[in-house]
Amino acid sequence: MTTTRRGFLSASAAIAALSGLGRGAWAAPLPREADIVVIGAGAAGIAAARRIQAANRRAVVVEADARLGGRCWTDGATFDVPFDRGARWLHNSETNPMVKLARNAGLNISAAPLGQKIRIGQRNARAGETEEFLAALVRANRAIDDASRGKADVACASVLPKELGDWAGTAEFVLGANGTGKDLRDVSVADKAHAQDRNAAIGCRQGVGALIAKLGEQVPVALSTPANQVNWSNRDVAVETPAGKIAARAVIVTVSSNVLAAGSIRFTPELPKRQLEAATKLSLGSYDRIALQLPGNPVGLAPDEAVIEQSNSTRTALLSANIAGSSLCLIDVAGSFGRDLSSQGEKAMVAFALEWLAKLFGSDITAAVKKSSVTRWNASPFVLGAMSVAAPGGQPSRKILTEPTGNLFLAGEATHEMLWGTVDGAWESGERAAEAALRKIGALTDPSAVPERTPAQRRRSRGASVN
Questions:
Q1: Residue 338 reports pLDDT greater than 90
Q2: Within a 10 A sphere around the Cβ of 129, how many other Cβ atoms?
Q3: N or C: which end of the chain has fewer CB within 10 A?
Q4: Residue 275: in which H helix or E strand, if any?
Q5: pLDDT at 26
């Protein structure tokens, strides 16, 4: 895992982002039969349903929420520019199928802006100080990589070099809370080292959520239709919802690891204990966003410029200023501090954002705020957090979640060993689960029908990232 000047502020928010209902959302009664039922209309569920349709089989997607998107969502109404309340980036443009699909759909895809600053108090870090930070980040990454090759899978925090000096806290924030949604004491060195590098971030001008919603337009989705119970076997499936029961030959479950572990869906027979334990070891980190409309650019930053601060406290954040040249500024809070802050509600979150910005840019910030909005993903009942992160010793759990279980298949970013925590990983996991389900029902017999990326292709797609 390497780090470059271009990538040290590469931020990953939560996973997939969707907005709108999509033309595939039903107003008609729920179908009673399908070849495969997909539970969850996030990126993994949309990808799975599209793959099933491409094989000329009937998919039905049931979504508990009243909107598409699962963990993420593009808000086009609150501010004068699209506001991704969850994931903001895609990655790996050369191998990511969503990039081509987005361009074919007429959406604007481009590399993420590179403007980045570090604040030390109310001034920008000097060139030499920035070099010191980057060197500290490289040493920390190298220590994590080295530890991942040991016999024991330990916490990332336990292997950090002692000589990181004044940059220790900043490095921990970038690698831990901001990169994974958890503090490094709660992150497996094996999981962190296995994560595919994600520096080559790609944005969508209309919003990542708008992109996924566009890709889901032709997918039949029943919104506000939670799957209450799944009766499954090796032969058939019955998915029970408040709108009725759907009979199928297989089911793909794409809910988050926290929802799965919470038992929000009843399974008969119960899911194997091995898989339920795996879900608990891949619990979701916390990552939320405080959006402030700040007319007049009181922070004095360029469009889309990103800022972190030198800090030895977890009480810190990432600023993305003047989104798309607008007056919208985003303050991302994550990890244990972000979780505690979001539990206090919107008022406390906005108060922190103003206090933090005033510390870095002066007290005039408070009077400049015209409008605010926050996300609180931990309190969202159909999500319960942000992205999955393996606890020390938990990295093998990702593969366990993909193990065959009759005609029931699990998908979602938590099931991806390298692209966990990304829209890319969720999408790829959905396609993979769909192909497994299609083979199970005899609808796909040629393993080369949809070629998977080769190890060489995966290596070429690796960028340089702190996340």
A1: yes
A2: 16
A3: N
A4: helix 273-280
A5: 55
Quickly count: other Cβ atoms within 10 Å of residue 304's Cβ. Answer: 17
Length of the chain: 467
pLDDT at 13: 33
Mapped onto helix, strand or coil, the DSSP state of residue 142 is helix
pLDDT in tens, 294-314: 999 999 999 999 999 999 999
Q: pLDDT at position 174, please?
A: 96
**Distance between CA atoms of residues 325 and 320, nearest Å:** 11
- Residue 354: pLDDT band (50, 70, 90) is very high
**DSSP bridge partners of 253:** 39, 410
Coil, helix or strand for 436? Answer: helix
Token pair in block for residue 192:
């962190």
**How is residue 382 annotated by DSSP?**
T
Instruction: Annotate 269-300 with DSSP letters as a single string.
Output: SPPPHHHHHHHHTT-B--EEEEEEE-TT-TT-
Beta bridge partners of 84: 74
For residues 300 and 313, give the distance between their C-alpha atoms in angstroms, rounded to a whole number.
Answer: 25
| b/e sequence 69-84, b meaning 16+ C-beta within 10 Å | bbbbbbbbeebebbbb
- Which helix (H) or strand (E) covers residue 109, if one does? strand 109-111
What does the pLDDT read at residue 446? 62
Q: Which amino acid is at 69?
A: G
- C-alpha of 12 from chain center: 7
With a cut of 80, say whether residue 204 has pLDDT above it: yes
Q: Which of 88, 14, 85, 82 is nearest to 306 (CA)?
A: 88
CA 297 remoteness from chain centre? 29
DSSP code for 67: S
- The three-state DSSP-derived secondary structure of 392-427 is CCCCCHHHHHCCCECCEEECCHHHCCCCCCCHHHHH
Burial of 410 (0-12, 13-18, 19+ CB in 10 A): buried
Say yes or no to pLDDT of 459 above 50: no
Q: How far apart are CA 291 and CA 330, in angstroms?
A: 5
231 DSSP β-pair partners: 238, 268
Worst-scoring range by mean pLDDT, 49-53, 231-235, 266-270?
A: 231-235
Residue 199: the pLDDT is 67
